[in-house]
């Protein structure tokens, strides 16, 4: 989370599309590369290698097991770069993977189409709108569509066969493209359908649970890249379907515990989208649902996450005392997890509450504790959702605290640091902290630089949609209105109004 529960690009463990017509073949070459390391130890080495080249992946023992079992025939682009960095001179084939074009290229599509037709299974009609204003790039063989060029992370969204139904239809739909610059609304005009979960017919299974997990990753990725505004309604629909999945499978004890956890994470992701879109009441409701699921499932990780988001929301909604209580409750829940980074984030949330109350001593103590915990470094106990917590985020959250305390110079210094350190994949976070920098400079009496930073934030908003960032820029514009004699200020105000 840019201050969000979002996840970085490429961190999901799923690889490219897998054809249901290809039985899994073990990958002995990859197993040999692991050597004497356990899957958990090897996963840790993958994460370390990713950090060396500026990637962020949440590789775990389960992912290594899926690769070695042949479930992942080709890694996504982020993992590919990490593996090739770890084993210089090797190709994907050397690592035991199938070439990408054979997995999801035209040749693979032709093979799958031929197999289906030979079995008497004709291609399904395309659900995309192919009118001039419709969604580009359905990928349907009968249309010969040209896919819209997207970033490599977003193109890597075709998953295994189970991803074609249920809530994960959200995850596999190419939600972003030029034809969707306006806010997307669920319905027949947006070219995306979300089939009812299979478990509505009483057949809850492992694949349904995995599809919910994948939907969470996909939402976080899109949020990091594009912000919340255009994504919220679709994600909310996926969440409602997931609750149907949970209700229909209530007696399927083998999968219900995991489904509770993944549904809670999905509720938090949807709640964050509502939060960033300034739908505060809806966000509060989603966070409450997640907390209830955490309590039902006795899941301290989900509970800590829910309290963390609740604290952040309360601070933004002007309820600092509630933010303080939620952050402290989250720290109690997280105490059982052994993650210093999670405790650091919750201490930062606590500092935000103290700052909102105007308690400088309490804020400084919480910030000092957060810095000490953060400096202990990452660990295998860190939850996947908080991979966004890096030096840039730490500086940005500290900046918000000093802004709340009225120390604009210190707030601006830290916000500038947050922008400079922000990883490239967190576009929304960069826009957020740039907007905060502009606001701090405007209040601190530097209108020209404030306008310059405001223009930088507007440039980022060409690809990011966040009501929160827009509101911050409008507040900055109000402060700059008396300074229109400066050409930079006049230009910023004109661009914002346009």
TrEMBL record:
Gene3D superfamilies in the record: Tetratricopeptide repeat domain (1.25.40.10)
Positions of the UniProt region annotated as Disordered: 1-37, 107-151, 178-206
Biased composition (Low complexity): 1-20
SUPFAM superfamilies: TPR-like
Name under which the protein is recorded: C1 regulatory protein
Species of provenance: Streptomyces tardus
């Amino acid at each position: 989370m840019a201050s969000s529960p979002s996840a970085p690009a490429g961190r999901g463990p799923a690889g490219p599309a897998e054809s249901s017509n290809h039985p899994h073949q073990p990958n002995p070459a990859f197993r040999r590369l692991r050597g004497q390391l356990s899957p958990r130890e090897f996963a840790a080495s993958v994460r370390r290698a990713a950090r060396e080249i500026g990637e962020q992946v949440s590789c775990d023992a389960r992912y290594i097991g899926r690769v070695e079992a042949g479930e992942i025939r080709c890694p996504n682009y982020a993992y590919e770069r990490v593996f090739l960095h770890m084993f210089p001179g090797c190709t994907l084939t050397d690592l035991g993977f199938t070439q990408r074009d054979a997995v999801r290229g035209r040749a693979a599509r032709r093979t799958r189409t031929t197999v289906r037709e030979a079995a008497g299974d004709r291609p399904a009609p395309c659900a995309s709108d192919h009118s001039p204003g419709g969604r580009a790039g359905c990928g349907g063989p009968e249309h010969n569509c040209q896919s819209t060029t997207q970033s490599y992370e977003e193109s890597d969204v075709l998953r295994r066969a189970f991803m074609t139904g249920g809530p994960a239809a959200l995850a596999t739909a190419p939600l972003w493209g030029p034809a969707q610059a306006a806010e997307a609304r669920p319905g027949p005009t947006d070219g995306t359908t979300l089939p009812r979960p299979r478990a509505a017919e009483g057949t809850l299974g492992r694949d349904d649970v995995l599809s919910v997990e994948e939907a969470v990753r996909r939402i976080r990725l899109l949020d990091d890249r594009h912000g919340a505004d255009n994504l919220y309604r679709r994600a909310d629909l996926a969440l409602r379907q997931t609750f149907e999945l949970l209700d229909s499978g209530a007696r399927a004890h083998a999968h219900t515990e995991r489904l509770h956890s993944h549904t809670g994470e999905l509720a938090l992701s949807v709640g964050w989208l509502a939060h960033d879109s300034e739908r505060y009441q809806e966000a509060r409701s989603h966070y409450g649902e997640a907390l209830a699921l955490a309590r039902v499932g006795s899941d301290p990780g989900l509970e800590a996450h829910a309290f963390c988001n609740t604290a952040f929301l309360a601070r933004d909604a002007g309820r600092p005392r509630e933010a303080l209580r939620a952050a402290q409750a989250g720290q109690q829940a997280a105490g059982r997890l052994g993650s210093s980074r999670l405790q650091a984030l919750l201490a930062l949330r606590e500092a935000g509450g103290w700052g909102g109350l105007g308690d400088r001593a309490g804020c400084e103590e919480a910030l000092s504790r957060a810095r000490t915990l953060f400096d202990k470094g990452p660990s295998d106990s860190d939850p996947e959702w908080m991979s966004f917590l890096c030096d840039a985020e730490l500086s940005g959250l500290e900046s918000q605290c000093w802004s709340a305390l009225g120390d604009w110079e210190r707030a601006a210094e830290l916000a500038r640091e947050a922008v400079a350190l922000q990883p490239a994949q967190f576009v929304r976070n960069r826009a957020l902290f740039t907007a905060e920098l502009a606001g701090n400079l405007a209040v601190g009496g530097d209108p020209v630089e404030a306008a310059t930073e405001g223009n930088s934030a507007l440039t980022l908003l060409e690809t990011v949609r966040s009501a929160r960032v827009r509101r911050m820029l409008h507040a900055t514009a109000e402060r700059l209105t008396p300074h229109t004699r400066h050409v930079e200020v006049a230009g910023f105000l004109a661009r914002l109004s346009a």
